[in-house]
Each structure stands twice: as C-alpha cells, then as structure tokens.
Specification:
Signal peptide: 1-18
Helix content: 40-55%
Strand content: 5-15%
Keywords: Coiled coil, Signal
Strand order of the largest sheet: 2-1-3
Distance between the termini: 68 Å
Radius of gyration: 31 Å
Biased composition (Low complexity): 61-73
Region (Disordered): 36-88
Structural class: mainly alpha
Domain DUF4124: 7-59
C-alpha cells in the first residue's frame, strides 16, 4: 500500500516539466515565460542549457556596529535637549490636531449612520457611502498611534 503513492508520484513527475520561452517585445525588452501566447517573437529555449546563477552581494556591516569617527561633529547636551524639546512640542501639536480630526471624522460617520435605520444600514449603497468616512477615521487612528509611539521614543 505504501508503494502505490510513490509509484504514482514517479509517474506524474515527468508531466511537471514545462517549456520555457524567451520573448522580445517591440521595445527590445526580454521576458522569460512558460506561456508562448504572451507575445510575439517568442522562441523556445533548449532544455540542455546550463543554469546560471548570480551570487548574492557581500553583506555590508551595519552602521550601528561601526564606531562614530572622532572627527564627527558633536552636539552640546543643552543644544540637543533644546532640539528634543522642540521636536516634542511639534509632535504634541500634531497629535492634538490629529485627535481633533479624528473626533470630527467619527462625528461625520455617526451623522451619516444616523440617517439610515435598521436593515437599510446594511445595503451595499449605504456601505459604499460610509466606507470613505470610515477609512478617514482609520487613517487618523493610525496617525495618532504613530505619533504616540514617536513621542514615547523621545528621551
């Protein structure tokens, strides 16, 4: 019983082979495909060609593992603190703006949903009208999440 699936697999494997075509379009772009009907100028490649491969580029070391050169300009701690404070203020202002925009978008969705009653809300036409508003709410929620994360990363 165990040999039957193995025997079937051995019989089916030759059927899995396909032909490969090299197609050149009018602009001279070359495409390799197994579908001859994809374009004109397709020629079947012979099956006895050697397979070529390109080695992966050498791995670069990350900049985090390299020490900062001594000639690199340093920022005074007070100047860096002032920059961080300014950045925090900008992010907090953006967060407040996004939270206000989220509240307005949620209000717009609630107003539009309030226009429809019961089963009417589930109609595709109504859902299509509400979807852009819901997308706007979701966008503001993602922006708020990103801003809070950025604020959390500040020292």
């Amino acid at each position: 019983m165990r040999t039957l699936p193995l025997l079937l697999l051995m019989l089916v494997s030759p059927l899995a082979q396909s032909q490969v075509f090299k197609c050149v379009d009018a602009n001279g772009a070359v495409t390799y495909t197994n579908d001859r009907n994809q374009g004109r100028g397709c020629k079947q490649l012979s099956e006895d060609q050697a397979v070529s491969s390109v080695p992966a580029p050498p791995k670069r070391s990350s900049s985090a593992s390299q020490p900062t050169p001594s000639s690199f300009p340093r920022v005074a701690p007070d100047a860096q603190r002032a920059r961080d404070d300014t950045r925090r203020q900008v992010l907090e202002k953006e967060l407040a703006t996004e939270e206000a925009a989220l509240a307005a978008a949620e209000k717009a969705v609630a107003e539009q949903e309030g226009r429809y009653q019961g089963a009417e809300r589930r109609l595709p036409l109504v859902q299509n009208r509400l979807q852009p508003l819901r997308d706007t709410v979701e966008l503001h929620q993602r922006n708020i999440e990103a801003l809070r994360k950025e604020l959390g990363n500040l020292k």
